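Practice problem 4.
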């Protein structure tokens, strides 16, 4: 169940950037990367490019270090990507491009490994429910992202931050779903490893 909550990460990062692109401070700070439609498209779509790369290596990673630790590693990759995006205040568009690509790698790999882990570990009668929970978490993350970047919440954030730092707290909210995930993943017992882990030895 804790692993399925990771869908929030994917959903939030998919939805939040549409609101960030409408922020006047962000547009002023990024220059032609928000006025040139091709460059603006790269800012948006590079998350999906990173997710594609993430799905390419996820199978190898899951076989190499087990499903459980592959989930933890990709969560760490996601954290690095969010931190890089938050440095965009100084680094500009390069931090957004690099950070969103790294975040995409993490969430793309998680979207492939988590269903695999659930299918191998969950009782047959709960597999469908847990896979559905992951998809529900993705949709919930998108909904939360639209609420976070709504005008009222945006103005509230702006009251406590200067205009160029508005994006940082909006982006860093993506780290919130990691709080319920962390204790759940760290306390998964040895006997909850998928059967493929034991057969691979």
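Answer key:
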């Amino acid at each position: 169940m804790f692993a399925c909550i990771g869908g929030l990460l994917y959903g939030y990062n998919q939805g939040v950037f549409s609101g960030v692109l409408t922020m006047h401070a962000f547009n002023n700070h990024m220059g032609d990367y928000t006025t040139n439609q091709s460059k603006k498209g790269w800012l948006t779509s590079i998350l999906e490019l990173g997710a594609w790369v993430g799905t390419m290596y996820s199978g190898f990673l899951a076989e190499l270090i087990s499903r459980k630790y592959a989930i933890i590693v990709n969560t760490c990759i996601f954290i690095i990507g969010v931190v890089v995006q938050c440095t965009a205040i100084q680094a500009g568009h390069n931090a957004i491009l690099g950070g969103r690509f790294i975040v995409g790698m993490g969430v793309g790999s998680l979207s492939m490994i988590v269903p695999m882990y659930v299918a191998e570990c969950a009782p047959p009668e709960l597999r469908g429910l847990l896979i559905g929970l992951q998809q529900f978490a993705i949709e919930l993350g998108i909904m939360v992202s639209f609420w976070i970047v709504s005008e009222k919440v945006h103005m509230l954030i702006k009251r406590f931050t200067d205009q160029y730092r508005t994006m940082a707290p909006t982006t860093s909210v993506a780290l919130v779903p990691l709080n319920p995930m962390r204790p759940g993943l760290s306390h998964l017992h040895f006997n909850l490893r998928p059967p493929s882990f034991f057969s691979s030895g």
